[in-house]
Design goal:
The chain is elongated. By secondary structure, the protein is mainly alpha-helical. It is built from 14 helices and no strands. α4 runs antiparallel to α5. Among the domains are: about 80 residues; about 90 residues.
């Protein structure tokens, strides 16, 4: 080999590998603003992606997208839509407590929202759906649903949800009325006239459209008889509401009056015996 010829570098393959690694690291470290801008979604795009997931029933991913909008785009109009969409997702999943809290938070934060009637309607429905259908059970949630919908027609005279609110509010009111009647029956079996009178009088004043009004009038008439009061007003009201029920009510009134008379006589005789002794 000539002394002037270049000597081959040791380990040429290793040198090429090292150069390739350095080039790769440099490429990774280089900024890529164009690609980052292309992959980031806007508030609208993120919201619409959540809507697509929701329509497909993929609620977990839909909730993730709506939360992203609410968290990262707080000043964007779509953040407001995302808040309501989160509440609606819980509603669709029958998660009544989560939906109720979300709707309540929305109402407090946005009392002038353009579609506030929808929010009030849905909030009432979460309470209605959470309440037990059996009137004998605790009806606290039913009462809250009625309170939520109170004055809905006057507040939102042009709402498209008025018919549904009236429908479910009627059912809720009837359920509450039935609860009062069940309690009145309990006192009636114990012949507690004043308690029955109190319950049925409040019932008749508060539930004018209840299907249980005829029974309330019958119970009230019997309660009057037990208290030595004139049951005529209750019987006449029953005649107007349900003429077929009058005969049975009058017989019950006579039995109650006779039992009351016997009890009064027995109490009087006992008092006289005590005086003699």
């Amino acid at each position: 080999m000539s002394a002037l010829a270049p000597r081959p570098a040791p380990f040429p393959g290793l040198r090429r590998v090292a150069v390739a690694i350095l080039v790769g690291l440099a490429l990774l470290a280089a900024p890529r603003p164009a690609k980052a801008a292309a992959t980031r979604l806007t508030a609208q795009q993120t919201y619409e992606l959540g809507e697509r997931f929701a329509k497909r029933g993929v609620y977990t991913k839909a909730l993730e997208q709506f939360n992203r909008v609410r968290t990262y785009f707080r000043d964007d109009p779509y953040a407001l839509k995302a808040e309501l969409a989160i509440a609606d997702l819980h509603y669709k999943k029958s998660e009544w407590d989560e939906a109720r809290l979300a709707y309540e938070d929305f109402l407090r934060a946005h009392p002038r929202y353009i579609d506030l009637d929808l929010v009030v309607y849905r909030l009432g429905m979460t309470l209605y759906e959470k309440s037990p259908a059996v009137a004998a059970k605790d009806q606290t949630w039913t009462k809250q649903a009625v309170n939520t919908w109170a004055g809905f027609t006057s507040r939102f005279p042009t709402s498209t949800h008025t018919a549904d609110v009236q429908k479910f509010m009627g059912k809720a009111s009837n359920r509450l009325g039935r609860k009062e009647i069940l309690i009145a029956r309990f006192y009636d079996r114990r012949e507690a006239g004043p308690a029955v009178e109190g319950r049925t009088s409040r019932f008749l004043a508060n539930y004018p459209d209840s299907p249980d009004r005829p029974e309330a009038m019958r119970l009230l008439a019997v309660a009057y008889a037990r208290e030595d009061k004139d049951p005529t007003v209750a019987i006449e009201a029953l005649k107007a509401a349900d003429p077929k029920a009058v005969g049975a009510a009058e017989r019950a009134v006579k039995r109650a009056a006779a039992r009351h008379a016997r009890q009064v006589a027995a109490d009087k005789a006992q008092a006289e015996r005590q005086v003699k002794h």
